[in-house]
């Protein structure tokens, strides 16, 4: 089951962000994805995103080699997140987006 803090965080993210226009294709045998991340929030957000890649049996492929990527998303802005699978065995993916707490980037 999902914890209350995790559930609250998911609601928070759904109110501020949503993903639309997911596209994928094979590029030299590798799964390439583009998806649009849209902010519903009027202020800037410091975020990170990370793709997880899965084979046709649902097993994670090389997840530790894919690092979190920083993203500054300004008020009501949209941006395209791009990902390229690490090898040709990838058949599907998911993406995680998280906010960087303000204390992590204060001087």
The total beta strand count reads: 6
Shape: elongated
Strand content: over 45%
Which spans of ≥5 residues are poorly predicted at pLDDT below 50?
Answer: 1-8
What would the average pLDDT be, to the nearest integer? 85
Q: Biggest β-sheet: count, sense, barrel?
A: 3 strands, antiparallel
Query: Which structural class do you get from the secondary structure elements?
Result: alpha+beta
H/E series: HEEEEEEH
Cα Rg = 15 Å
Distance between the termini: 37 Å
User: Percent of residues in helical segments?
Assistant: 10-25%
Top keywords for this entry?
disordered N terminus; 2 helices; 3-stranded antiparallel sheet; 107 residues
Structural description of this entry:
The chain is of the alpha+beta class. Helices cover 16% and strands 48% of the residues. The protein is built from two helices and six strands; from the N terminus they run H-E-E-E-E-E-E-H. It has a three-stranded antiparallel β-sheet with strand order 1-2-5. A hairpin with a 2-residue loop joins strand 1 and strand 2. The longest helix is centred in the first third of the chain and has 13 residues. The protein is elongated. The N terminus is likely disordered.
Blueprint of the fold:
Blueprint: H1 4-16, E1 17-27, E2 30-39, E3 45-54, E4 69-73, E5 78-84, E6 92-99, H2 102-105
Summarize the structure.
With 107 residues, the chain is of the alpha+beta class. Helices cover 16% and strands 48% of the residues.
């Amino acid at each position: 089951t999902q914890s209350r803090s995790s559930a609250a965080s998911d609601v928070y993210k759904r109110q501020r962000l949503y993903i639309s226009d997911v596209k994928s294709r094979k590029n030299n045998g590798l799964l390439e994805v583009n998806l649009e991340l849209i902010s519903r929030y009027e202020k800037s957000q410091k975020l990170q995103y990370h793709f997880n890649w899965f084979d046709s049996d649902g097993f994670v492929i090389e997840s530790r080699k894919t690092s979190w990527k920083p993203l500054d998303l300004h008020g009501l802005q949209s941006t395209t997140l791009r990902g390229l699978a690490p090898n040709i065995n990838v058949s599907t993916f998911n993406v995680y987006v998280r906010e960087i707490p303000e204390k992590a980037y204060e001087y």
